[in-house]
């Protein structure tokens, strides 16, 4: 029997937050672009067509917005790890990956980004 996993992709969530340790970064909010991938078993969701059996991407997105905009971070690693942990708190999630990019971090680059991922242990 096929056991499909759904993959949700929250794509290019554009937010502003305090991130960095230079004086200008400490005193001014910066743009960040967040991409999130979340996987979960989809069988119950599509068999029942019941939202209670799916991962609510709106809830995840709202939590990511609130966490990013209401906190300060010195490192991309900290913000990315905390967003990853937030995604993994959803009970059905088996895998999550978060990429956070700072578009204006380097003069000659489109952005600098960091990606972290996690698997739920069986």
Automatic annotation (TrEMBL):
Enzyme nomenclature, EC number: 5.1.99.7
Keyword Transport among record annotations: no
GO cellular component: cytosol
SUPFAM superfamilies per record: Tetrahydrobiopterin biosynthesis enzymes-like (SSF55620)
Record keywords, A-Z: Isomerase
Coiled coil stretches, renumbered: none
Class in the EC hierarchy, top level: isomerase
One function term, GO molecular function aspect: dihydroneopterin triphosphate 2'-epimerase activity
BP terms from Gene Ontology: folic acid-containing compound metabolic process
SMART domains associated with the record: FolB
Reaction(s) catalysed by this chain's protein: 7,8-dihydroneopterin 3'-triphosphate = 7,8-dihydromonapterin 3'-triphosphate
Alphabetical list of InterPro entries matching this protein: Dihydroneopterin_aldolase, FolB_dom, GTP-CH-I_C/QueF
Domain Dihydroneopterin aldolase/epimerase, chain residue ranges per copy: 8-118
Family stated for the protein in its record: Belongs to the DHNA family.
Name of the protein: Dihydroneopterin triphosphate 2'-epimerase
Organism: Marinomonas ushuaiensis DSM 15871
